[in-house]
């Protein structure tokens, strides 16, 4: 192993374990909360596990077991048989396995019986009783310290707390003590200074005012050595312990009981047991120095420069004296060459060049002297790969970063998750960058989602977050706004994108087809005019020059084909000459969904016309809110969203709809309509949504955004259930909404229409399930009471931060009261929206944080 010979600026890479004592020695390790205590005391032989490989952390401790643990703590030995024949007043222990331990502890006054003759060795010890025993181990005389008699319990509590014995002991003090918290009590005792009686009081220091030896130092020869920076941690082949190297004298410590690679790059202390010559054979624990702290952790892709500071995940950190963006070097584990600066890592994280490796690699910023500034950093190199094949003994991967050779990995050489299979995406940490001698392979989640927006080298997906697009082995990851993908995201970077519905954004509806084709002089090519409706609700008369990529050549061959496009779903592309290439949606062109050409009649009892639509279902299938339904009556054609269809009244089925097909997609085993046609011969207008007005709380000022190369107005809002961006079909916001406003709007395809600022700032003074009383000003008749509409909308928010909050009808609160100059006032806490008739409340947008909008907007009580 190559040890790094640098000072704090010399930093190392993460290894994979992230727990101080992440030992996997016990089968129930995950249930152990007091991991440091259990692992150290197991290594010291103070506590043991069970033959079945478990530790049983929540099992309780007997009085006999506690006596044994204290004996080992005091003597460093496990055999107390030499004390078996000692005299004792206890009559119930002579044949007990723990007789020697109990007699030893009794002789020192550490333990007492239930009576003069009964010890009750198999009785459960409480945490309070255990603490009393350990206080005597520290040096307290039970009688002199008040640990006997009627007040022993309260005195024990006070002294145990004073001496730090109760730290992290998260259990009842008077109930039977769980094994792990008995270990925690002993662990705290090991590091507690012993006490001596001097000057009529117990003292923790000697006559020179130096700390007394700790219990560990006095009885077990345990010493915490200052070891400097932890350079390396490696598992010893074939053993259950590790070797570490540190900067102090280039020292190596052997037989470290657990993986401490979490501490790489930090100043550490090592717990060792010295023999009479000052030598030691093994280490019992490795601990971060008191001043050594981790400032931040994250992915390398989250780095950026901020002047002369380094920023990680949006937070900036200053450098310690002597360190900077250029002088704080980052090394990989076990290497002291090819170091890079934090500046170069931040540059590599830029969206123009970020690779999958940079995206997945991890970084840790360290402060080793307690001043809150960076003086060290640690990096874990991580590769991203796709599994290309799996056999019984190995698996092969294709790395996503250019320049990294694909490879086959034996299962014997790696820690691999269960169920690995072809086409999985994984992260791989090489064994060279771990304490273990095996590589770590972990599965990455694949997110199926629609890409909402794109901008240079970035895409918005999975809500409101923008993600960088990685420069991968096959080029930069490319996505198109509006299309659906299986995305692999790591470190805020999309490292792979598989389009799952490549043409969903190009599904359209041809309402009509001209009877005659158009020809061009001197050419056999023809075009055919059609009336086409797009998903955004717009329509146009366009010329079709190709069907499924094939040019239209003569009228006779294509007349029937073109006639067959009428009132059908198609996919389209606009060609460079302005004409269109269209293709019928069908079983062979179903854009990643399921196609139904013959839509079944509704089986609902309300379907008196036996048509395909009834009670908000098409062909007996539910309609997704984000679906597009092309509704064609003898009077007009409209493009409605699924949400609008779902708001239709039950009376709509009187239009006797037919359908020329629909596309569905499964979600949790249920097929939902995503695209459909509804056609009626009735000469009526397309019905609108009966309850299509929506409300939202504006979380940032309205702005312009780019949508498919055009400026559009955008409003970031909280709807009560999600943060979303409303796009208005206008080049700039027509409503100057600012953060904190309330707006109403309707949905028309992908756009928001009829956007208005609504709501009156109010102080709600009375509220029940059906009525609200509130005030809106200081006029004489300033008290209003209105009934809640049956469909009243409730939106919770934090007005101070302009953010949404979870809320409900039942969570609405009344206004706070405030007294100013002896006058009582109400503080506004909500926006009230009334219906058009002004007699019912249709929306309440309320502050769910502290029930205050403007603390200065007061209404007289």
UniProtKB/TrEMBL annotation:
Residues 21-84, 85-148 form the SLH domain. InterPro entries: SLH_dom (IPR001119). It holds the Pfam family SLH. Coiled coil: none annotated. Keywords: Repeat, Signal. Residues 1-24 form the signal peptide. The keyword Thylakoid does not apply. It comes from the Bacteria. This is S-layer homology domain-containing protein. It comes from Agathobaculum butyriciproducens. The lineage of its organism: Bacteria, Bacillati, Bacillota, Clostridia, Eubacteriales.
